[in-house]
Design goal:
There is one protein chain. The chain is α/β, with parallel strands linked by helices. The protein is built from 5 helices and 6 strands; from the N terminus they run βαβαβαβαββα. The chain has one domain: Lumazine/riboflavin synthase (Rossmann fold, 3-Layer(aba) Sandwich), CATH 3.40.50. Helix content is about 45%, strand content about 20%. The strands form 2 sheets. The chain has a 4-stranded parallel β-sheet, with helices on both faces. A hairpin with a 2-residue loop joins β5 (about 135-140) and β6 (about 140-145). The longest helix is centred in the middle third of the chain and has 20 residues, at about 95-115. The protein is globular, with a radius of gyration of 15 Å.
Length: about 160
Amino acid sequence: MSAKNKNLSEHQSLDVPNASKYKIAIAVSAYNEAITFALRDGAIATLKEYGVKEKNIFVELVPGAYELPLAAKLLYEKKRADAVLALGCVIKGDTDHDIYINNAVSKALMDLTLQTRAPFLFGVITPNNLQQAKDRAGGKHGNKGVECAVAALKMLALKDKLN
């Protein structure tokens, strides 16, 4: 589906369970902070909207996107988080660095998800330029932090249902 004219953060409120019992950790890249802090703020607001208690939301900053998987694992272990959101922004540059970073981070988060059976959400936006980043961090295409928060809550509800 093309995101060209769609706010990707739109979701049906009834589809998101009450999350008052969950602990959610959020690892946030400090690189491109104008973007990543908007993702963080969207995620936190969404988690609170669906009942996650403020005392059960744990946020830590890391230098860049590449450091997100380790931070996510540490947060999961130390805070006994039910789910972890990894939020970052890797803007395409003149080299292929973005491809290597994004592939490594997404693979590491998927591995953590499968190893722990807890949702580790890939909230790293991968735009070609700063405007595309702004569009996905609260702009015309929504907020990837919101999307990750909703996805985490839905996956936790699924996990509860199947356990």
